[in-house]
Amino acid sequence: MLGIYEKALPHQMNWNQKLKLAKDLGFDFVEMSVDESDERLARLDWNNDEIEAVHQAVVHNNLPILSMCLSGHRRFPLGSLQLASRQTALSMMLKAIKLASRLGIRNIQLAGYDVYYEDKSPLTRQLFIQNLTKCVKMAEKYEVMLSIEIMDDPFINSISKVQHIKTLIHSPWLQAYPDIGNLSAWPENDVGYELEHGIDNIAAVHLKDTLPVHDDFPGKFKNVPFGAGTVDFVGCLRTLKSLGYNGPYMIEMWSETSSDPVKEIKVAKQFIDKAFAKAEAEVDEHA
Length: 287
What we know:
Layout: E1 2-5, H1 15-24, E2 29-34, H2 38-41, H3 48-61, E3 65-70, H4 83-103, E4 107-111, H5 122-142, E5 145-149, H6 159-168, E6 174-177, H7 180-185, H8 191-198, E7 205-207, E8 209-211, E9 220-224, H9 233-242, E10 249-251, H10 261-285
Parallel strand pairs: 1-2, 1-10, 2-3, 3-4, 4-5, 5-6, 7-10
Antiparallel strand pairs: 8-9
Helix pairs in contact: 1-3, 4-5, 8-9, 9-10
């Protein structure tokens, strides 16, 4: 299963048009964005007619929205020192879970930040864990998976760190959503080990290219064209295949406002299709 991030698709399109385009381009699903903008946060308050319109687009195109990228918590973080922000974060989560349940979305991807615009501290970490525990309890009731993305931030930049959080929050409804690009950009990560050691907790995988972090360079985590970064896609895909991973992959791009997003998506998909084919051939060759 190969999906495409909603933010790769032309922004001006409605849901019917987005899903049709994604299907025409050969994708199996779309990942919805609920980011920190007012426009996309408003989706959490969609009325019945708005939800039904999206549902009808899914049925009409026979293409599901399998996951939701809930990055709105950057603006209202679970670990904020501000009580009002934490309360908003919890309210957002409950709304997102209910929306996911109604739309058939199986997996909500959480950004692995305790806070984003505030200063980090042991207290922001503890507040994050405390409120994530509440979020997981909400998700369990609706049978919606919460998956922590491996991020462009040291707070959670490895699958191992998600596994540690799982020792504090015991639930099958909390898992990891590794971004291969982010995982590869941190020099302290042994990417092969992370995938091998974390395979039982991987619910889905993001695919994007990145430039690594160095002492004098903060890394580049977005808008690196596939092939222009340093991610070993064939090696990662081969490792996941050898481990028996059969879950979804999702190409993450932000081309929705570019001059020719369709062209950019086609180039990216061609690159990833070739990486999949090469990884599969190499696994079979050494079987």
